Amino acid sequence: MEQRQTGFGIFVRLSGMMFLQFAIWGAWAVLIAGHMQNLGFSGTQISYVFGTTAIGSIISPIIAGWIADRLMPAQVFAAISHLLGGVCLLVAWKQTSFPMMWVSIFLHAVLYMPTIALTNAIAFHHMGQSDKFGNIRVFGTLGWIAINWILSLYLRYWEGREPTLPQVDDCLLFGAVLSFIMAAYCLTLPNTPPSKEAKNPYAFLEAFSLISNRNFAVLLIISFVVAIELPFYYNLTYLFLTEAEHGVGLAGSSANLATSLGQVAEVVLMLLLFPCLRRFGMRFTIFLGILAWPVRYTIFAIGEPVWLVVGAQTLHGICYSFFFVGGMIAVERLSPKDIRASSQALLLFVTNGFGMLVGHIVSGRVHEYFADPAGGHAWAKIFMVPIVITVIAAIAFIFLFNERKYQADVEVIEQDTANA
């Protein structure tokens, strides 16, 4: 019989795992846009590089849900993936052409995205109580914040020594080093053996049966639509903040620090999510989460004052906590116990996978279309696209999602679960 470790020690080890897991992604996810712009990549090319993570999310169920479940312990497979992923980031660090950059980041994404599911599985397997997962997962957000603050200090150092020498490409080097550290750290984690039962890597398709529930269908469709606008924030914010011609004109170090405010707010707003759900209900809480996006994009479109544009980054906390985490909770409560995991996987597949993939393509083409031949971009016009998308999504959700029906369905499902 396997002996699971418990107590504060395992909490620290799992928290450290989450910290490193998301520090790797955070190291390059923001700054690589500036690096690719320095290399002369077009808006479409930049979006294709970012789109590799969406492709990785689509195929990750095959890797994480099949190979790792059948062949080897999760921590060993994660170690191998991070080791090879670090090599891919080192290769990408030295690339100056689009094809090789895309291939390098694509291979890294294919290796990295499945490790998110693997680290979640390791945490759930060893922490004992699943309702404490959030206490461990928050260290992933802290890892993202920490590496971005470190990189901001690093860029600030180089801006003082060599103002004309861009160092944003070193974000890939930082990511590679963190990948190697994570690979070694994974081998110290408690053993998480493969499942004895072979699983269908796309078992989440079973959750499609829940589309007959109107509220579930509304959540799924609106989540897909909202995911389309996400790359306008993730891919373009750094470029907007650093562009001198028509953007905000911040130094790279300051822009990178500003983007991290969104994750800081995410930690704070997560604490307010459950009180808001109790006070306002699921329908209005998620509606507020959607509405925070067009508010932020409107401030971006206006572009001044600078303090307001920077402060608008904190709206990410409402966007992510109220909409995405709120949506995950709603999906959990609307799903029968035996397919809850499948329902969550379906939601991630639709948002992080296909929704984000469409968004990367759209945002890249819009960014390129509104490029000014004289230099810079028409940012107000660029941000009008996600404003329209999110306003339509917010209006559709508030009219189509039925709070009373949702509460009634939740009560029935909870009763059925209790009687099972």
Which secondary structure elements does this structure contain, and how are they paired or packed?
Blueprint lengths: L7 H22 L2 H7 L4 H29 L2 H20 L4 H30 L5 H29 L8 H17 L27 H21 L2 H6 L9 H51 L3 H6 L3 H20 L5 H30 L9 H22 L2 H17 L1
Helix pairs in contact: 1-5, 1-6, 1-7, 3-5, 3-13, 4-5, 4-7, 6-10, 8-12, 8-13, 8-14, 10-12, 10-14, 12-13
Give a description of the structure.
It is a single chain. With 420 residues, this protein is mainly α. It has 15 helices and no strands. It is globular, with a radius of gyration of 21 Å. Helices cover 78% and strands 0% of the residues. It has 2 domains: 1-195, Growth Hormone, Chain: A; 202-420, Growth Hormone, Chain: A, CATH 1.20.1250.20. The model has no long low-confidence stretch (mean pLDDT 87).
Uncertain stretches:
none
Mind telling me the C-alpha Rg?
A: 21 Å
Structural class per helix/strand content? mainly alpha
CATH superfamily of the largest domain: MFS general substrate transporter like domains
| CATH class designation of the largest domain | Mainly Alpha
* Helix coverage percent: over 70%
Keywords:
420 residues; mainly alpha; Growth Hormone, Chain: A
Short description:
The protein is mainly alpha-helical and about 425 residues long. It has 2 domains: about 1-195, Up-down Bundle (Growth Hormone, Chain: A), CATH 1.20.1250; about 200-420, MFS general substrate transporter like domains (Growth Hormone, Chain: A, Up-down Bundle), CATH 1.20.1250. Helices cover about 80% and strands about 0% of the residues.
